[in-house]
Amino acid sequence: xxxxxxxxxxxxxxxxxxxxxxxxxxxxxxxxxxxxxxxxxxxxxxxxxxxxxxxxxxxxxxxxxxxxxxxxxxxxxxxxxxxxxxxxxxxxxxxxxxxxxxxxxxxxxxxxxxxxxxxxxxxxxxxxxxxxxxxxxxxxxxxxxxxxxxxxxxxxxxxxxxxxxxxxxxxxxxxxxxxxxxxxxxxxxxxxxxxxxxxxxxxxxxxxxxxxxxxxxxxxxxxxxxxxxxxxxxxxxxxxxxxxxxxxxxxxxxxxxxxxxxxxxxxxxxxxxxxxxxxxxxx
Length: 283
Fold this sequence. Notes:
Blueprint: H1 5-9, H2 20-38, H3 40-48, H4 53-80, H5 84-90, H6 92-106, H7 113-134, H8 144-165, H9 172-183, H10 196-264, H11 275-282
Helix pairs in contact: 2-4, 2-7, 3-4, 3-7, 4-6, 5-6, 6-7, 8-9, 8-10, 9-10
């Protein structure tokens, strides 16, 4: 029996043999929740690693938005799916994200500061896990537009964060350029992160950049290989149709031959004698 690691990781989605509407809504919400998960990185930095009260409040707002988004998604899916307990087991990461985010939000400002920070970091890790496992859908011929859209949004968000946390960045354009050179691991050296916050953020941005480059390469390979696969499918379809026609013709020929052979082997019908002719024969 094969082990489904997506179930172990808690990102398996809708269980098999469930309501068709659940699969449709899962597909509709996929990209939206991917973007919401991506917001976990800037929210963590704005709330935990910045000294500005304004940026801290922005991080809190983003955290609340993430909590509300995940809670609404879970409630909607539990309302649609038939196998509710199995859905919770298959998606225990979402449950952990909601409970952990709520606990971190309610415990902010208490004496459990260190535990709350560790819990918030674990929640961010779970969101990144869900985001990485969601990127697997980009490895398809239809995923190329989503890769470019995801990359553009990532560069814009990364540029905005660099603009906020890096003192050497004087405009949003420079921030986007630094985000691009960091994610692409180009490293021209004209703009570099200098503060601890921006350097740690660069590490995450490099990881996201590697994932995007891999997804882009996989999508292009899928397009090139997909053309040959489509041609092979069309040829197989024509061969199957031809075989079906030949089998149907053979069945018809067999029925016709069986009917002909059956009529030739039938015994001649017995001759009926009229009662009066029988009496004449007896006389």
